[in-house]
């Protein structure tokens, strides 16, 4: 089978797998919902609070884009702030509105190379930006849990479904068996002579072809290591943007009559944002909603319908905030102006 055909088959299988995960997660979160109660919760939602939360979320995205701009400048890639904003929202659009085989980070890495001769460094900045963002979220969640929640978790309210922790406790034997089966399959696969030979050959080719790239990559990494203040600024921008958004969601939760303290939000939302970033579903569809509901029910005793309403608001924020990225793509604003000979005849 030709390589192009194999790649197409792999993309289709990956898409089918993610659609399956999203479907199963949606069915899971919708099971046993009281639709009347859910409708009542949504009717209580203030559009003023919703608009404020959406505006705060967009502001948080602008701060995150500014973080990427800082990382680009550390590599002496001097893109303008508006250009970085456009590329960031383009990636956001493809991550949350058009989730397909190509993710938003891949598009950001691809199009930033059109704006600079330092293509490898530009692509690396996307990886570093994503790593700092996810790491910052995990540190925020761990710090909030250790400082405020350890030993002070609320039991689920009477009559509510058991939380995720109860489900894992009930099925721990099955999960352990599944983990052992996966581990055994991996060990068997890599112990097979043919597979081991293929992996060794592939690694050899990659190293042979990538020696020059690895050398440049090493230099690019060294640049970041030599600029700790830049990394610190990027981390502070992460904390600022996500903290602001979390406070906005806390206010929105108060409007939905969710009786949970701000410290719970600083644990639950960062964890679920990281989980939603794992490409096992379509833009985290279903996975984020199910996880958010289970954590709010298990950690705060919130009824499931209120938690689901909050999850729906977050999903709407993701989609609405990403729509400017679609306009950027339609107008071709993500491409450098230098590729145009004149206003009439763009270069193909």
Any overview of this molecule?
The longest helix is centred in the middle third of the chain and has 31 residues, at 119-149. It is built from 14 helices and no strands. 76% of the residues lie in helices and 0% in strands. It has one domain (40-171, 217-339). Helix 3 packs across helix 4, helix 3 runs antiparallel to helix 11 and helix 4 crosses helix 14. It has 348 residues and is mainly alpha-helical. The protein has helices at residues 3-30, 35-43, 47-74, 81-96, 104-112, 119-149, 164-170, 172-191, 193-209, 211-225, 228-255, 262-277, 287-300, 304-331.
Q: Can you write the helix and strand succession as a string? A: HHHHHHHHHHHHHH
Instruction: Determine Rg (CA atoms, Å).
Output: 23 Å
Low-pLDDT segments, ≥5 res: 154-164, 339-348
Average pLDDT confidence is 79
- Tell me the strand percentage band: under 5%
Query: N-to-C terminal Cα separation, in Å?
Result: 31 Å
How many E-type strands?
A: 0
Largest sheet: none
User: How many discrete domains?
Assistant: 1
Overall form: globular
- How many alpha or pi helices? 14
Which structural class do you get from the secondary structure elements?
A: mainly alpha
Helix content class: over 70%
Structure in a nutshell:
With 348 residues, the chain is mostly helical.
Furnish the topology, listing elements before pairings.
Layout: H1 3-30, H2 35-43, H3 47-74, H4 81-96, H5 104-112, H6 119-149, H7 164-170, H8 172-191, H9 193-209, H10 211-225, H11 228-255, H12 262-277, H13 287-300, H14 304-331
Helix pairs in contact: 1-13, 2-14, 3-4, 3-6, 3-11, 3-14, 4-5, 4-14, 5-6, 6-11, 6-12, 9-10, 11-12, 12-13, 13-14
